[in-house]
Amino acid sequence: MIAHYPKAVYFMPWNGITGPIQNKNAWGAYNNPKVINMGELRSVRSTANPAANDKTKKLLSVLSGLGDRDRMLSGAFGGYNLFVHEIGFSMEQANGIQKLTNKLPTIYGMDCSPGWETTEDGHETDLIDCFHPNIVDYAKKGGIITISHHFPNPVYAGNKVDGKGTLTNTQYATILQDGTSARNRWLKMMEKIATGLKAYKDQGITILYRPFHEMNGDWFWWSAIPNDQSQNGERQRLFKLLWQDLFNFMKNKGLDNLLWVYSPDQSRDSKTAYYPGNNYVDIVGLDWYTVDPNSYVNGYDELLSLGKPFAFAEVGPYGESQGHFDFGLFIKNIVSRYPKAVFFMPWNGITSPIKNNNIWEVYNNPKVINLGEL
Q1: Fewer Cβ atoms within 10 A, N terminus or C terminus of the chain?
Q2: Matching PROSITE patterns, A to Z (predicted)?
Q3: What's the rounded Cα separation, in Å, for the pair 43 and 67?
Q4: With helix as H, strand as E and coil as C, how does 59-123 read?
Q5: Where in the sequence numbering do the catalytic residues fall?
Q6: pTM of this prediction?
């Protein structure tokens, strides 16, 4: 029904022998991510957190309007906090973009947990720090901040993972089970994250908060199970619970300055199968790495059908195109084929615009809104 008749606004099965409870897969019908049940009916353009502050609500309204106006905010990723490396957080991307284009990106990003690092057992929160004073400075200039994570794995003490860190569903479930070591680590991690996000709240700064990205891939501990699709229905259920757990934790901490961004990977299926529900998401998007700047993205219409503002939450060149990728052609591709996108954010390092070609055309495209132009 949903696939063939997407304009339908409600459905009503009859009772008796024709009713869902007398037939099969009622769970699938009423737990479909595109179905709104009792208690869930709020405008998809309302903030997921009804208690969001006025500034946060206004930003969501502005972003929603951009999709209707065929305009898009520029972005750049500043790097990983707590990581001293070329891809560690700095203002290099913003400064480099300004030098080459005379523009600054409207959106600036930071990842606050380099989850490939290890630490002493019991000190997993040492791998997390979501606050940086340069983020505050950029926001005070009118920038919009987005925060993401490469979370440490709470199942393993000190983030010392076994092999690639892939979790069984049984292991995954322990993160949600009171009294387990994994649950205790996860609670401490969420507390540390909340501390950083509250520091932005205290400065009056709204955050585009993008946890658990690329969950439909199989390269992160929170994502799909590699090479075993039979287990991924349960993984999708557990993922939704984990997202909702994080959402409710931050909401109960009074963090009313967050807009929640859901961004699966465009190269894999099941893009909406992990969707935790309209009441837990403000913005949807795709992470898109490609060799060909004129290629088509997978999942644009699928994500748009959720009714939320859409973004290219993480983009860049892939494989042999890194270092000579035509970002100018890429942005023309985006604005012409995907006009509902409200922002784009290239990553840093060798995938960044300043390390590739035709950056001027990106930040000077007439449909792109840069810092100070919103």
Answers
A1: N
A2: GH26
A3: 16
A4: HHHHHHHHHHHCCEECEEEEEECCCCCCCECCCHHHHHHHHHHCCCCCEEEEEEEECCCCCCCCC
A5: 214, 314
A6: 0.89
